[in-house]
Design goal:
Blueprint (H helix, E strand, L loop, with lengths): L18 H5 L10 H27 L10 H21 L18 H18 L5 H7 L2 H14 L5 H20 L1 E2 L9 H5 L9 H27 L4 H21 L13 H23 L2 H22 L3 E2 L1 H18 L3
Antiparallel strand pairs: 1-2
Helix pairs in contact: 2-11, 2-12, 3-10, 3-11, 4-9, 4-10, 5-7, 6-7, 6-9, 7-13, 9-11, 12-13
């Protein structure tokens, strides 16, 4: 049987691949009983809702048109919350601690995951200097393609023509929504809230911005697939793997926060809405780690894309933004993509 070219990361750890992860790509998890399948579906729906609620909740935190706290504070507190939740689940016995000596050596590979995620989070901020928000929103959908590329190379899973078409539709849906899915009734511009906030900034991207965007998309795909590879090959409880990952995440973001120069204190400017943003992002991170271990990076892409619908509906309800024809077209494309990828062959 012919295999796709092997990614160097595929030999990073020594355990065989998890059979659970691949069954999702065949349209669900047929090996699970109905109750477990229902829990899996509920988990995906919750994650979709939390992803979609992030931007509207963040907008509700604004004071005088700006976020009153340091973004690095929110990221650090989110990582710390995830770490504490993982430690709590191990302490109370929700997940069994592995027998014998704690496998601390298996923690080291997660440092690279934390570094990749940290680099990507900072690139998002840095990219805004070299392009307008609307251009970023549209072109950042290329990370769907980069994730699929690394998924095929590193996990040696070949996508069918039908699945490839589904991912192309997913990219088109994201670009369509970003280009004009929402409109501020008081503004002639159509686009996501970030575009409205940018006022009449002209569409532009510099050559350096394009190179950084390509780097961002590649790192995004690599970080997702690399973390999936680690979680599936290590025969460790998910909570322990998360403990490793978020320990490095806390240390990295603590250093970034401390090195960020003078600014508001760690909790300065936080409100109830801000606390809800941190908690929802922490819970969603834990849900996504379960998707990576028992599902796949491709499943994660569909969750993120479907969350655009939640984002739009909440933005319309809470922020009084109007849905446009582009939103309904994007929703149709997402539905077609889900049907093509996970529907019966």
């Amino acid at each position: 049987m012919h295999h796709s070219p092997r990614c160097p990361l595929a030999s990073y750890t020594g355990h065989p691949r998890s059979s659970l992860g691949m069954s999702v790509e065949d349209g669900g998890m047929p090996g699970l009983g109905r109750p477990r399948q229902a829990r899996w579906t509920l988990m995906l729906l919750l994650s979709t809702a939390m992803y979609g609620a992030h931007a509207p909740l963040l907008a509700l935190c604004h004071v005088d048109g700006r976020v009153p706290f340091r973004p690095s504070s929110a990221v650090l507190l989110t990582e710390l919350t995830k770490l504490l939740l993982c430690a709590f689940s191990l302490l109370v016995g929700w997940q069994a601690w592995p027998q014998g000596t704690p496998p601390w050596r298996q923690a080291a590979p997660f440092a690279l995951s934390a570094l990749l995620y940290g680099a990507n989070n900072n690139l998002v901020i840095y990219l805004q200097r070299y392009m307008d928000p609307s251009t970023y929103q549209v072109l950042s959908n290329l990370k769907i393609g980069s994730t699929a590329l690394f998924y095929c190379l590193c996990l040696r899973h070949r996508l069918s023509a039908r699945q490839g078409l589904a991912l192309l539709l997913l990219m088109a849906a994201g670009a369509c929504y970003a280009a004009g899915g929402l409109r501020d009734p008081g503004n002639t511009l159509s686009g996501p809230p970030s575009a409205a906030a940018a006022g009449r900034m002209p569409l532009h991207i510099t050559p350096l911005g394009l190179l950084l965007l390509i780097l961002y998309c590649l790192i995004s795909g690599l970080s997702s697939v690399y973390t999936e590879l680690l979680m599936k090959r290590q025969r460790l409880p998910l909570a322990l793997q998360n403990l490793f990952l978020y320990t490095f995440g806390v240390l990295l973001n603590l250093g970034l926060h401390a090195g960020g120069g003078p600014g508001p204190g760690l909790l300065e400017g936080f409100s109830g809405w801000a606390a809800l943003v941190v908690l929802s992002q922490a819970l969603n991170g834990l849900l996504m780690s379960a998707v990576m271990k028992h599902g796949s990076s491709i499943t994660r892409l569909f969750v993120v894309s479907c969350s655009l619908v939640v984002n739009a509906v909440l933005s319309a309800a809470l922020l009084r933004l109007q849905l446009t024809a582009a939103f309904f077209l994007a929703t149709l494309l997402i539905g077609l993509a889900v049907r093509l990828y996970y529907g019966s062959r």
